[in-house]
Amino acid sequence: MRAFINGCRNVVGLDGCDLKGKYGGCLLSATALDGYNGLVPLGIMVCKNECAENWFLFLKHLKPRLDEHPVQEINFISDRQKGLRDAIHTLFPTSPHRFCFRHMYQNFKSHFKGSKLHTMFWNAARAYKAKHFQAHMDSMMVENVKAFEYLMGEDPKSWCRAFFDHNSSCEHLSNNFSESFNNMIAKIREKPLCTLILMYGQLVMGLFYKRINACVGWDSGDLVPSAKKLLKLMFKKIGEYKVAGAVAGKVYKVTSIHSSIFTIDLDRKTCSCVQWQLRGFPCQHAVCVLQQVRPNWVQYCARYYLVDNYKITYASGIVPLEGPDD
Fold first, then answer.
1. What is the pLDDT of residue 20?
2. What is the DSSP letter of 298?
3. Which 3 state secondary structure label does DSSP give 45?
4. Which of 246-279 are b and which e, b meaning 16 or more Cβ less than 10 Å from the residue's Cβ?
């Protein structure tokens, strides 16, 4: 949990998976994301089944440490399991709760057929602006009223990017990092309880050890390699945009080859496309402006993308668990 508090985004993925051993049971997990988009295990709980009572107990134990994160409120992302939803609402009543798009999409496809409807749903979910979301939903209402009503039965704040918390620096629609954790622990899910816990501890310890060693050669005061790689990709597209100054050194107008216009405010670190605000990382339009002034890119990115922040995340390491005889 120190890693989460010190360096991870204020986003927590929650998921449950069945245990495959002789006695069955269920494993509940909480995971977070570091600045390299790597999953960070926060905790697990082994229980008889996935129900409201067990989710409440699990989250109740996590709550004191989750509340220590410097950026509040915590953003949760999970499937729409009712017991989990109730537990989050009770313990974290003001926290945003995203529903995994992948699960929603599968359910939607089982109720409504046709690629046109499916594309409308996808476009609505990934829209960064409320007006674009509304336009896609209006088109769906014309196409199929029941499909529209089905989706609007869930608060769009739970599944559309246009309404996500900008303080999260995270645009994830799906709970893929929790699914990745379930795959990571596949080999330990069939083990007896004590062995499972010891293997889980070994897995997390090895993960932290590997990552802290991997970043030894990274330069302090710089961006993590994945962030620099993304910037390089955007540099290649700069020729597709024209930049015009509006307020010297502060506000700029960027026009795409398709004549779309975007307004960049460097002081506020905002773009009218909204991607900069939601990601905490300059969008393509901001990069077109910033490359003209040769900036220190670190100043325009959320702290999660910084090497120093990444190193702090894993600095504490994980102490080995004692064996069952001890």
1. 87
2. G
3. strand
4. eeeeebbbbbeeeeeebebbbeebbbbbbbbbbb
